[in-house]
Design brief:
There is one protein chain. This protein is of the alpha/beta class. Helix 20 packs across helix 24. About 1% of the residues have low confidence.
Length: 863
Amino acid sequence: MAARPPELYSEQDVVAKVILPELARLGYNETDPGKHVTIRFTHPIIAHQGREKKTLFADLVVFIRDVPVIVIDAKNPRQYLNDNDKEQVISYARLLGDIAPYSALCNGTWAVYDSITKQQLPGLPTYDGLLGDQQRRRVTARQRAVLVRQATRTLFAIESARELSRLMRRCHDVIRNLKGYDPTKAFDELSKVLFCKMYEEREVEEGRRSVNRFTTQVVKEMREQGVEIIQNLWRDTISSDRYREVFADQQGSDGIELPAEAIDKIVAILENRSLTLTDLDVKGVAFEEFLAATYRGGGLGQYFTPREVVRFMVDLADPAIGEKVIDPACGTGGFLIRTYDVVSNKIETSELSSKEKERLRRELANQCLVGIDWEPRAARTCKMNMIIHGDGHAGVYHANALDLEEVRQKVSQRRMVYPSAPAVEEGIFDLVLTNPPFGAVDSTDRILGYYQLGRGRKTQKREILLIERCIRLLRPGGRMVIVLPEGILSNKQDQDVRDYITEHCIVKAIIRLPQDAFKMSEGAACTSIMYAVKKDPGNPILSEQGDVFFARAEYIGISPSGKPVEENDLLSIRDQFRKFEAGEWDELELEMVEEETVQFVREADGSSGPWLEPEVNRTSLLYDRLCYVVRRPRLTGRFSYTFFHPAYYRVMQALRKMPVELRSLQSLCQEGYPVRGKKPSEESAEGIPVIKLRNVTGQGIDPDTDYAPDTEETWKESERGIVRKGDVLVTSTGEGTIGRVDIYPYDEPAICDNHVAICRVKDGINARYLVEFLRSEYGQIQMLRYVSGSTGQTELNIEHLASVQVPVPSDETQEAIARLMDDARQRATELRKQAAGLQERAAYILADARASMYRLIADTPVR
């Protein structure tokens, strides 16, 4: 049983109750003289920038033989850990005499980072593990100098970032307090004012104007002359060479749609803060926080992929210096910004000359990053985001990425303003990173005609067309990391999409995400991340499908509401994938022998123990936190995480070893069964009972149901959905509800709706035994393997239910098993009643004690 977390009220509690015990557990023991460990508290960190000097203090620094190895900052347990905290502790680690390889934040939960690459890690290393890792973490003198410069700049900028974030929130609140302004409207109008300020500052700085018009004094003076100067400034901004293209969709608009009073307040808040002189990192962090809060809270979450997922996907792809990267559904630009940061850091820490670094940075911003989005606000926001992070907006296009002609036109138009704006041609990109929107369809004949997956159809899902578009954009050997609805990997009707993927790509990894991964982004789909490499016929390694890495994350570092949480399986999955890519995989491994047969090359450590039947989400059997590798898989059908799950093959191996005949469920049913029910077209207050999903509980049929009219038309309409006493019912729809099994016990016939399957068994098959087998791990895993669909309405198709393999022992054994399970369920029910009685008794004992307490107080003699 896990230890209960300690009560934490302050930073001191975090240090004493969490940090120090964890360091001791990992082996950093000061009392062991052979380890030479020293832990120093409030250790001074000195940063110099020009003549200015700052002395800051790291809460804890762990030294081994006087060499710093870990820097830890403790935070208040009620404080969320953010990017500024991360940058600060990493900067502390870089500014020590020797760079400490690990940095960590702790507010009761941990966030651990590599101090060199800034990548988040699953946790701190053990003492022995750290010593073994040290040799791989050497940096050159030039790299050290760059890291120190970055750290110094960051520490001096963090205070500014926090201040700027606070000022932006104040400005946003000014607008939000206006009647009728929702978060996105407020964001749009504040963005206009911010870019007015940046434009005016640059005009003054570069000598084109002698007076800054973005001041309270100028606003007041010009208003007395009948001029709203900020509105004039906005017209100048959107007409300027620098920002004209960014705000192309705002040309001819009514200007800044704010009352003069609100504009005055914002000018007063911002006038003494220079945005052009503010470090790009500062503006970037402040704008990202502002952007995230606005889009998540303003009904535009579909354009905002959670930052934790973005980081994971970019880390998985590991973009290199000089690579061309595109996101054809870029939203607010999260993948492009993260790629820019990662590659910028690689440029900065390289051994190249300053001149070469500057050239590569310009190339990165202006040539290497391309984003396309057809929603005007999202495209405009992406451009603003890129500008604030270091420009690169020339590669962001407002267009339908699926419309080849429109994209060509937009590129041509852009090149009239920016002659070197990057092209969007097929076969030129090294990397595609994207999370396309799901659910929309395209019905334009011209667009459908561009695509193999669209030709000859009246409509096609946009995400399917985008998959083909992404693959065609890649050069041979190019990489694609994409979020896909789970149905693409499993639905029968999407087999042609999977065939297209495997014809043109090598699938390297499938990572299943939790269903609520995009809940804060208004997404309800079950999703997976697919990492694929475009085939290269000229390269034997890139022409044939190889081994595939599968994993599932239960936690992604953020809750469905958007709050950060400590658990983040993506970090360990990333590290496991790197082991796989490096040829160092030593975990669970399967090898395909035949179509439905595998051999276990390597088993995972430990045993899962006996199966405890889930009470709520039965799909937990296959939705575990697992990484596994399949050698030489045949990707001719499905290739989802659950389809190749090792648990399925273990079940089938166990069943095949049983000394009884294995038969399909269909062969145990009367002809025509199993069959899906059919929902009656009408309902009524009484009549024929309708068995729905909720009525099949897995513990007996719930008789509280709805009804259909008892008419000849209803019986005829629902003929195939009529259920009779003794029929076995299986729920076949819904995430977490698929696979409930019960026997229909009533003499009165009923009608099953289309979410329930009916199994009418043959004579000689004990229905009670069949129910118990289907409820067991052996039956559940077979059913859950074939679940398809992308939303909460996932499906188990009849043909897959019919194919479930059932061992058929003798009649006597079937009856014995049925009686055994009946007795076990009866005993379990009795124990639950006893438990409920004990709980009630405990409540009475406490209530009596309180009554006695009150009497004792009332009877206390007065002194």
